[in-house]
Amino acid sequence: MAENKRAIIIGIPGVGKTTVITRAAELLARSRRTTTVVFGTLMFEEAKKTGLQNRDEMRKLPVEKQKQLQETAARRISEMHDDVVIVDTHLFINTNEGYYPGLPMRLLTIMNPTNFILVSADPQQIVERRKTDQTRQRDVLSVEAVQKELDISQTMVAACSVITGAPFSVVVNGDNKVDEAAAQVTRILTGEVK
User: Fold this and answer.
1) Cβ proximity of 160 and 108 under 8 Å
2) Which SS3 state, helix, strand or coil, does residue 169 take?
3) Which of 162, 164, 142, 160 is nearest to 152 (CA)?
4) Range(s) of the domain holding residue 149
5) Which residues contact 170 (CB under 8 A, 6 or more apart)?
6) Mean pLDDT across the chain, nearest whole number?
7) Of 14, 61, 124, 193, which is the most buried if we count CB atoms within 10 A?
8) What is the mean predicted confidence (pLDDT) over 14-22?
9) Least trusted range by pLDDT, from 21-25, 53-57, 73-77, 121-125
10) Is the pLDDT of residue 1 over 50?
11) Distance CA 17, CA 15 (A)
12) Domains in the chain: how many in total?
């Protein structure tokens, strides 16, 4: 059996990260015990105990409270031991105090990832996806602002890779290309070459 994988898959809102993860998990589950966990959902489960009613409200919390919620979620993830554990999360949270890292060193140490996969897309496509997403309260930004978020993401994922020693890959999820992106994620996590 191949080495167990704990893959952190990240991307800014609107890249289609969760859709790519869902498809990749379906492919992986054919041959490996696979668990997918949404980091923000684990945080929100804790935050609801303090009275929050909307997941998007978490980024308005004081940074110290966000840190506590993150550490609780990271510990829960570190206790998962399937063949493949996929963590669906973001590299940063745009707070009132500035960009707050979604994966600071203390969380990386707790989770001990084997891989990072950054899902990306064309900035214009991301803007359009955000405008039409009725499922979340998305910030609608300019193409230039989205490009800045993409650039910050690439810098942050490279830093996470250096800190942990885990490799990172960038997977592009173009419009109507989710199956190709999911297949690429699957190849990365199984070590299969196309």
Assistant:
1) yes
2) strand
3) 160
4) 5-190
5) 117, 118, 120, 154, 157
6) 90
7) 14
8) 95
9) 53-57
10) no
11) 6
12) 1
